[in-house]
Write a structure and sequence with these properties.
44% of the residues are buried. Strands 1-21-18-17-16 form a 5-stranded antiparallel sheet, with no helix packed on it. Strands 3, 4, 5, 6 and 7 form a 5-stranded antiparallel sheet that branches. The chain starts with a helix and ends with a strand. It has 435 residues and is mainly β. The protein contains 3 helices and 28 strands. Helices cover 6% and strands 35% of the residues. The protein has helices at residues 2-18, 56-60, 150-153; strands spanning 43-44, 79-85, 91-96, 104-108, 112-117, 120-121, 127-128, 141-145, 155-162, 169-177, 184-196, 207-209, 215-218, 241-245, 273-276, 281-286, 293-297, 304-309, 324-325, 328-329, 346-348, 356-361, 374-378, 383-390, 393-401, 406-411, 417-421, 425-431.
């Protein structure tokens, strides 16, 4: 514990001194776990409709005013982490193929994807594109997504950084399996989208198929610090955005634009953009039961945040960066315009952590105590929180002060939830007493 406390002090001192130049994205460095005394619980957004103040007349009457209905208090579970997979090299993503096989896939940042069946690893990598991936730091093979028809189409999608053929850029590509093997053919790559990365950090990297069947892509603001190009707010840049494209288009075009994307026909914005104002969305996910979207966005100097988008959203949200960091003005540092911005539902400061990693809402069947809780963590401190909405009010709770470098989370097809440790192991999140 003395060593653990020493590292916490070191990390926090470094954060204060170097915050302005620290990128803060999960895979950027192998920082020691920094835990000690219980950190504060993340701040949740205030109720947008506060209770009315009782009138003066009511206060003067001899009959006491009735008390407002008390808000229900969430019951938070104790959790345990059960080691499931090991021997991995810098894992950064975890997925399943939605094909009924029970297989899971782990993305290794260097450019490999490993396949596991009943916790047994395949004899050779499921995918190997190390010859075109630029790694590491915040670069590398960063995300994988399987379409609903994977079992028949035998196609999948990845997001990675590359300097092939020249300067650094992000690439989103489609690959196909070999005709006679359950393994990706690297020569089948179809590049759907690529765009320049001005710096080597804040590359985003998450891709996922939404409940609507479209491919969603999270992009960082391009890097450096404080978004010097203001990409998060630029409608003519794909950086600092949440993108939404249709990859079921005819073969003659890489992808199509969904007709209901919010900026179609708006000359100020690119058609691919669904939402903007993001710094470095390090993992977003859809609640498989409701379709609601959760976005964890890595902060600059002071605040990490969780954004929420309800399933019935029509898109077009501006999540605020670089005008705001969390619930606080950033540029300008005070008196910033907030009209039209969508505020985060939770945030935490530099005492609790330095780099947020977004997770999933638990919808499995084996651990009812976890049902409906959105899990997220901090890569540096290892803190793991739960977040849920109760009667319109967001509540969060520290569930475990772990020693893990949480680079990602993942689900299997049954809805079981997993934590990805960048140091090479995968853990299943379980409710204590229900394992």
């Amino acid at each position: 514990m003395k060593i653990k406390a020493f590292w916490r002090i070191c990390v926090l001192i470094c954060a204060v001194v170097f915050a302005a130049c620290t990128p803060g994205s999960p895979p950027s460095s192998q920082q020691p776990a920094a835990n000690g005394a219980d950190p504060p619980t993340p701040t949740t957004a205030p109720d947008p409709t506060p209770a009315e103040t009782p009138s003066t007349a009511a206060a003067e009457t001899s009959t006491p005013a009735p008390e407002a209905d008390a808000q229900p208090v969430p019951v938070w579970p104790d959790i345990v982490l059960v080691e499931t997979l090991s021997g991995l090299r810098n894992p950064v993503d975890f997925a399943h193929a939605r094909d009924g096989s029970g297989r899971v896939y782990v993305v290794e940042q260097i450019g490999l994807v490993q396949e596991f069946t009943d916790a047994l690893q395949g004899e050779s990598p499921f995918m190997d594109i190390r010859d075109r991936v630029t790694c590491c730091g915040e670069m590398g093979l960063l995300g994988i997504a399987f379409p609903a028809d994977f079992s028949s189409s035998r196609t999948l999608y990845v997001n990675y950084t590359t300097t092939d053929p020249g300067r650094l850029h992000t690439r989103v590509s489609r690959f196909r399996l070999l005709p006679d093997a359950h393994q990706v053919d690297p020569d089948t790559e179809e590049i759907l989208m690529e765009f320049h990365q001005p710096w080597r950090n804040h590359n985003g990297g998450q891709i996922a198929f939404g409940p609507d069947g479209y491919l969603w892509i999270g992009t960082g603001d391009g890097g450096s610090a404080a978004d010097p190009q203001d990409n998060g707010q630029k409608g003519q840049s794909l950086l600092g955005k949440l993108l939404r494209i249709d990859v079921s288009a005819a073969a003659e075009v890489p992808y199509a634009i969904p007709e209901d994307n919010p900026f179609v026909g708006n000359d100020d914005f690119l058609d691919e953009i669904w939402a903007y104002g993001l710094r470095n969305p390090w993992r977003f996910s859809f609640d498989r039961a409701t379709g609601d979207l959760y976005i964890a966005d890595v902060g600059q100097n002071a605040w990490e945040e969780v954004n929420f988008q309800p399933a019935d959203s029509l898109g077009g949200e501006n999540y605020g960066w670089r005008i705001m960091e969390g619930l606080h003005c950033f540029n300008p540092s005070s008196g910033c315009p907030t009209a039209g911005l969508t505020m985060p539902v939770a945030e935490y400061d530099r005492i609790s952590g330095l780099s947020i990693t977004g997770g999933y809402v638990y919808r499995g069947q084996d651990h009812p105590a976890l049902q409906g809780i959105y899990f997220f963590a901090d890569y540096v401190t290892g803190n793991i929180w739960g977040l849920k909405q109760v009667d319109g009010v967001w509540e969060s709770e520290l569930l475990q002060d772990s020693a893990h470098s949480v680079s990602s989370f993942g689900e299997d097809e049954a809805g079981n939830l997993y934590l990805v440790d960048y140091r090479g192991k995968i853990y299943q999140i379980q409710a204590a007493g229900q394992n």
